[in-house]
Design a protein that fits this description.
382 residues, alpha/beta, 14 helices, 10 strands, 45% helix
Length: 382
């Protein structure tokens, strides 16, 4: 059913599930959904004006914490090119970083988390008032580089490390059953943590590790906290799905595909079974076929792999039949070729090697899948 983002946010709230995992292509509206969800859970009138004025991301500790592109807007670079000063990553005044840095003193944990995912020699240095951060390379020989400006990917990893440290503290605090025995009561009313795409620019190994660690953190939550996670990265989705044990039979949890239509409406499709577990297999099939094409070693079994890839992709995207993904102008012809080469039963049809036109068909069909379906445009972590 086609809906507005507000209606989808309401659907997520009313589901009342511990974890909801959403896959969506880049540009679909994940970040806007996070803001709609925040406005639904904690409307502006319920947030102190001081927070609304200083926190674009409105990380209100009353009912919801959320991480998205606007969280990153709390951090900005002061390059001071005229004075040729050392670049500094400035932190806008906000209750989110003030609590985790000033009140909880978690700066060293943030540094450790950042170095683990980014570079063990790249060291953040907080100012005394925690209003800015500088970065240097520590070589291990009592020497270090001057302050440097880190890459956008490293910056995103640093900001995620701050947020991850925050939610780690929050979960530990709320795991104490009696509010009177908690070290802080600032999060007693917290209901949701919404996380939108924390995996940009991570390599595959660190991406998997981040997903495993995040899932472990969520599993450790013993309070009534609920989590909504959105991502465009299929591998991240796959690992989270497996680590969290999300399945059709578990009514507490949910998996979805968020789609946007040309008229500006949206649909949140529930996803079950193999469609949630096939991302890594998708990538393996694609890489195997690409290697055969690159070396001109396409054999008849590669047609079987290609058909399997079309079937898995169609299942993930919700198409009832895989031929619907084929090029419209050649659908009947290409379907016949794929059926013929994948399921030949007559000995007269079986030959040792496919012909050159058949080999070309593999390349054409694979490229069609990559060019025309957003899944494959976002399919491999960079």
């Amino acid at each position: 059913m086609e809906s507005t983002l507000t209606e989808i946010a309401t659907q997520l709230r009313d589901a009342n599930k511990k974890v909801q995992l959403i896959y969506a292509f880049n540009g679909t509206g994940k970040t806007r959904l996070s803001r709609e969800f925040k406005n639904l859970i904690a409307p502006k009138g319920e947030t102190p004006e001081s927070e609304e004025d200083t926190d674009e991301s409105n990380l209100s500790r009353n009912k919801i914490l959320y991480y998205n592109a606007f969280t990153e807007d709390l951090f900005y670079w002061d390059n001071d090119l005229q004075e040729d000063a050392e670049p500094k990553l400035k932190i806008q005044p906000n209750s989110f970083t003030e609590w985790v840095l000033k009140e909880q003193g978690q700066d060293q944990n943030i540094v450790s988390n950042f170095q683990h995912y980014a570079n063990p020699h790249l060291s953040p240095h907080f100012s005394e008032d925690f209003s800015e951060v500088t970065f240097s390379i520590e070589r291990g020989d009592d020497e270090s580089s001057s302050s440097l400006k880190i890459s956008k990917g490293e910056e995103s990893t640093f900001i995620w490390s701050v947020f991850y440290t925050l939610i780690d503290q929050v979960i530990n605090i709320l795991n104490v059953p009696e509010p009177s025995e908690r070290e802080s009561n600032q999060f007693d009313a917290l209901e949701y943590i919404f996380i939108d795409d924390p995996v940009s620019s991570l390599d595959e190994n660190h991406l998997i590790e981040l997903a495993v660690n995040l899932a472990a953190l969520i599993r450790s939550s013993e309070s009534s906290l609920r989590f909504v996670i959105t991502t465009h990265n299929p591998l991240f989705y796959n690992v989270l799905h497996n680590e969290l044990g999300l399945s059709k039979g578990n009514r507490r949890d949910g998996c979805y595909l968020l789609e946007r239509y040309e008229d500006g409406t949206f649909e949140l499709n529930v996803k079950y079974g193999d469609s949630n577990k096939s991302f890594s297999y998708h990538l393996h099939l694609k890489q195997t076929i690409e290697a055969a094409i690159a070396t001109n070693q396409v054999e008849r079994y590669h047609f079987t792999l290609l058909r399997n890839l079309y079937e898995k992709t169609a299942s993930f995207l919700g198409y009832p039949r895989w031929p619907e993904l084929l090029p419209d102008d050649k659908q009947a012809y290409l379907n016949r070729i794929m059926q013929f080469t994948s399921h030949s039963t007559l000995s007269s049809e079986t030959v040792a090697q496919p012909s050159e036109p058949e080999k070309n068909t593999v390349g054409v069909l694979l490229q069609h899948l990559v060019d025309n379906y957003g899944y494959w445009q976002q399919g491999e972590p960079q």
